[in-house]
Amino acid sequence: MYSVVNTATVLGIDAKLITVEADISEGMPLFEMVGYLSSEVREAKERVRAALKNQGYALPVKRITVNLSPANIRKTGSGFDLPIAVAILSAIGIIPEESLRDVCVIGEISLDGSIQPVNGILPMALEASENGFKKVIVPKNNLVEARLVNNIEIIGLNNLRDVIEYLTYGQYIAQEVTERVEEENIEESLYDFSMINGQPGLRRACEVAVAGMHNMLMVGPPGAGKSMVAKCIPSILPPMSKKDQLELTKIYSVCGKFDERKGLIKNRPFRSPHHTVSEQGLTGGGQNPKPGEISLAHGGVLFLDELTEFRKTTLEILRQPMEDKKVSISRVNGSFTYPADFMLVAAMNPCNCGYYPNLNKCHCTRAQIQRYIGKLSQPLLDRIDITVDAPQLSYSQISSKEKNESSREIRARIEKCHMLQAERYKDYDFSNNSHIPSSLMEKFCHLGPEEEKYMKEMYEENDLTARTYYKTLKVARTIADLEESIDIKISHLQEAFAYRGLVKKYWEEHI
Ligand SMILES: [Zn+2]
Fold it and tell me: Which of 85, 287, 419, 445 is the S-S candidate for 473 at Cβ 3.0 to 4.6 Å?
C-alpha cells in the first residue's frame, strides 16, 4: 500500500516540486515522517491525524511512513498537510491512485479538516504549470492568486472532504470567483506634484532621479516638504513590464501580502519603513525566511525618511544590495536570493535642530553638525547619485496661486525616457542609466572633445573618485535622455555636477 502525491515548496521567491510518498505496512502501529523536515512540517502529522479523524477516516493501526523528497531541500511551511493527507488516503485505498497523476496538491489543514491558505501559492502554481501538471488543488482562499497562472486548471477547495470527493469522482462545487476587470491604468496616487508649491530644484531632481532610477537624498529643515515630495514620487513612476509585475507579485505572495482585490501588482511599489525597522525587516531573512522591505520595494522606491534616525548598522546593510540589486540569504543548507532592485529616496535634516545653515535658528556646534551628518557613512553616500537641497519656503512661494505642473505631465516625460532606455539596453541585463556598468560607460556615456575637457577639469578641480566620476556621467546621461539628446552636452554635465553640491557642502568641506 503505497502512493505518491506531488506538491511544491517555496525557495526564495521561486518554488520547487516536492514528492510526498506514503507507505502503509504491517508492523508496530507507528506514524513516521522523514525527509529533512522543519518542525512545522513535523507537526503536520498531528494536524493530519486529527483532520482525518474528524472527517471520519481513522488511521489504520499499521506502520505509516511518509517521505518528502528530494531529501536535500529543507521542507518548511504548512502547505504539506494536504498532500500528506491525500497520500495517506490514497495508500489506504480511499482516493484512487490514477486521479493523482497530473495533479499538484497544496494546502494547510486545520484539525476539523478545513483547508487554510498558505504563502507563496503563486510561485508554486507557476512551478506546477512549468512542469507540465494539468491541475493544482489549492486552498479556496488562495484561488484568485493561483489563477494568475495560465495553462493549468486551478481548483480551490474548502475542506478535506471536498478534496476526497473531487479526486474520487472528479466533481466539485464550481467556484464563484468574481473576475476582476483588468485595469491597465496606473492607480492614481493621492499625492500629486501639482500640490507642491515652489521647490523647483527638488521637483526637477525627482524627475531626473525617477527618469534614470537614480538614488536620491534630500536635505533640508523640517517643514520644507521633503516627505510630501517623496509621497508624490509614486505618481510619476512609469509602468512596469508584465514580467516585472509577475516577479513583484511573487515577492508579495511569498510574504503573504498578496492582495486579492488588486491581483497582479501593476504599480511600482513605494515602501517607507519606519526608522525602527530591524535589519531583518529591511533586508529579509529569519527562521522562516521572508523578503524584507528592500525586496518589497523591488522595481520601485524605498523611501527612508529621517535617514539619520536609522541605526548605522541598519543603513550599512543596504550597501551590498544596492550594488547587487538583490540580497542573498544564507541558510545552513545553502543560500538563496531575493530580488532587491530598488531606487533609494532618503530625506534628512542637515543638523540636530534641523536649521543649519540658517544661523539665526541653528546654534549647533561644528562638532555636533559633523557628528550628525557623519551618521551617513561615505560608502553609503557614494551610492547616492543625486543630492538636493530642500529649502524652507518663502511666504510668497507658499501662498503662490500659480498653477504647478501636475504629475501626469512629468510622468509623460519620464515614461518616454524609460522607453528610450529600455530600447537602448535591450540586449543587456539592466534597463536604466543608473545601472550602466563601468565597462560600458564609454559605449553609452561617450563624451565629445569639449565635454571631455570639461570633465577633466572638474575631475581635477574637485578631486573626484572614479565612482563619483561615473555616477556624474550616468546622471548626465539621464538628463540628456530627458531632452532626447543623443549626445551628452556640457549643460547636462553641469546639472549632474550640481547634484553633488550637497556632498561638497556638508561632507567634503569641513564645516
Ligand atoms: Zn542646528
Answer: 445
